[in-house]
Amino acid sequence: MGRLLMAAALTPSRRLLSVTTVGPERGSLISSSACLAFPTCMLDTPATARDALRAIVDHIEPKSLAAWDSVGPFVALDIEALCTTTPAPASATSGVTTDTTGASQALGEIALIQLCTPGIPQVFLIDVLTLGKAAAVDLCGPLLTNPRLKKCVFDCRRDVEAIAMQWHLRPAGMLDLQLWYTAAQWKVRGGTRRGGLHYVLKQEFGINRESNDSPVTIAMTLGNRAVWDVRPLPQPFLEYAADDVRHVAALVVEFDQRRRGSPGVGVDSGDAKLPAASPADTQTSLTTSAPPFPTVNVDAASGKLLMTGLLDGVARITDAYVQHYASDAVRTGGGSTVTEELDPAPNVVMPDLLERYFGPAGSCKFCGASGHSEHECFRKKQGTLKCHHCGELGHLASSCFRKHPQLLKCSYCGQLGHVSSKCFLKAPCKICGGPHPEAKCHRYLMPAAVAAASLGSSTASTTASTVTPSASRRQ
User: Fold this and answer.
1) 183 and 251 belong to one structural domain
2) In terms of domains, do 128 and 193 share one?
3) What is the spatial distance between Cα 40 and Cα 82, in angstroms, rounded to a whole number?
4) Same domain flag for 57 and 122
5) Whose CA is closest to 435, among 445, 427, 443, 447?
6) Which regions of 327-413 does DSSP assign to beta strands (E)?
7) How many separate domains does the chain show?
8) Which of 82, 106, 281, 318 can bridge 277 by disulfide, Cβ–Cβ 3.0-4.6 Å?
9) Residue 168: which of 334, 2, 381, 352 has the closest Cα?
10) ∠ CA 58-60-62 to the nearest 5 degrees?
């Protein structure tokens, strides 16, 4: 992959960059661990920001396709906004807020734009507050709205809403890694929960960000302070912002390795093999044509999800979220937030959307139950697994019905309390056709004596009815 080396001189106020292109332009590979070591560069002047953005565009655009046939060259994107508190919409009947998690609240004023691409060993932090909103929109707008410049994000909802509402831009060419991860869970386990960035990093890389992020997390959650308006930003805040896109870039590399079925290979920056598509063609391909539904498997040795066949569907569902969270704000000229969320809860993806773009939910290939994969099946492992949530043997916390009661919902009839493999509407009693198993059928459980007595009484009554008339005639 083309390498852009930054000859940098650090001053107390900013890092001045001289960008030159050296090294091979094709065929080199970037590993996920290399993304985690990229240094940070704060851009607080129009000249430095313009140079960095031009380097990113020049690196990505000549080798990128508008359609998501492959990951290819990309840029990891995230934003940090002032931590102003905006109350959630009040209920029409009770007059109180219906969601206190903050997930349905719009972000405050955009303070930073973070960018990272594996082809340039640097994390760029564009200081929006110092540059000013007008200059930031002028500089970042072409990158955000160009569908040929692929942008990978983690949970696009609030970021897209902020960009559309505050900057009057509709982002294009985006891929949501959280949706990618959830789609894989859906196809393997039937899960709909959104895993947070910290959770996914811990599951896939064993990285625990909570200890390093605690000063920033405390500052962002306690009190009603803007937090990100301090200049110069303290070092923990700089590293927090940079880690967001470092980790997003590393996840893209890891997921692309699994999509290819070649763990440890990295992202290939070779030439694209398909003809370029126009922006109009891209929008059509993202919203109309649908490939066959994918089948996702779990690596037998490591237990990790193999992300094969999901990329096009992830791009399509991401575009659906972008349309929902950006279209209203752009059409009304900004200033209006989203009043109706696309998902039933902040931490889940609507099952109808997952089924529309990825097909039916998956289940365990060994026992047929949802909530776990064959690799995690306690029946296959003869009950040796132990849940860390309830302490019982036979299942994991990820499939614990006490922790996740929505997992005990039948995908066939929609009722709670059982899974589709135990659904009696799907497989009724073979004896009487009722909604129960054969072993509990009232006809099956009827004692032989009761059946004989019932048969005998009916015989006796029949005999009495035939004998009594002759007796009366003898009398």
Assistant:
1) yes
2) yes
3) 21
4) yes
5) 427
6) none
7) 3
8) 281
9) 334
10) 70
